[in-house]
TrEMBL record:
Domain named Amidohydrolase: residues: 39-399
GO biological-process terms attached to the record: cytosine catabolic process
GO MF annotation list: cytosine deaminase activity; isoguanine deaminase activity; metal ion binding
Name used for this protein in its record: Cytosine deaminase
Signal sequence extent: none
Pfam families the UniProt entry points to: Amidohydro_3 (PF07969)
Amino acid sequence: MDLIIRNASLPDGRTQIDIGINGARIVAVEPALAATASQEIDAQCNLVTPPFVDAHFHMDAALSYGLPRVNASGTLLEGIALWGELKPTLTQHAVLERALQYCDWAVARGLLAIRSHVDVCDPRLLAVEALVEVKRRVAPYLDLQLVAFPQDGLLRSPGAFDNLKRAIALGVDVVGGIPHFERTMADGAKSIRLLCEFAAQKGLRVDMHCDESDDPMSRHIETLAAETHRLGLQGRVAGSHLTSMHSMNNDYVSKLLPLIREAGVAVIANPLVNITLQGRADTYPKRRGMTRVPEMLAAGIDVAFGHDCVMDPWYGFGSGDMLEVAHMALHVAQMTGVDASRACFTAITQTPARILGLEGYGVEPGCHADLVWLDARDPVEAIRLRAARLAVIRRGQVVSRQPAAQATLALPGRPASVNFKLCR
Ligand SMILES: [Zn+2]
């Protein structure tokens, strides 16, 4: 074999597992593998996981923080206005360079698949062209899936639907939308119908920004679920954000959850950005804004977490670390039980991989040899420590290494040579 990782703990709880790799594929996953390999890694009983997957990102805006100014109010709407100021000054080169830099960060963090929305409301489509080129260039290292996103509204922004169709023709993968930003509730519903019909006709997936609002009357998710059901798009549609569900009354939600489940619509929450942008008009009590993740999981709905933004008009923080995303989700949703904490790890690995439709994802024979060796024993500890990514492996090759955090202390009464791992 080309590479064997020995003594791995896996996210499903198996321990002392050896992972054999030939070329770009995993060929064996079993205890005490008898084979030998030209390269071996001793995982030292630490966690080896399939890579992190970000189900919701905006790579065309990433790393543009402060251009041309920062978001003073911190609201979603000022962020959209700020992006509108920045758009006319964008160049294809600048978008491409920032995106490539972010992909470097992502790979180092073990984030090897990203679904990024790309704004199609600029008729020049220069961000689309830049990200299609980024997707081609980073393909050996990272799966970049693009969503045609009419940021200023499909019906509200002149020419947006034509631009969206052109973007799909240029190589964008998924149909996006933003019904809550159309002029009326009726226009929002119409945009969902048009976009879902277009996706059904083209055989494409759908991922809409939906109800990113604290207004409990923002109910476009109901229409998205109904259109998904009507058009037979089950398993191919995601609703991103759904923050208005945080503020809806429980009676209505008790009808809505089974509707989402029946339609097979997946949900993508964005904890870092939801907790930052939502509740801005509240005094106290101040709502958290993130959608109802534990209730959705209990109803059998697929829920993934996205990073959404890193250093852009909406959010000036972040570094491409999906463990930070899961850490915030766990706190915002109070998912502190053991099973709930593990579910937060699943929401940045297996579930988004399924939503993106990634082929060969997992730690089983036949899967791509895409793995991350973490300085943590299990998924919950990985989230707690935002653990170091000791090695990132893509298609059988080690593409990034990071040393384990270590401290050397000589406290009174202790041997001076004690090296120990931080916090473990
Ligand atoms: Zn978004």
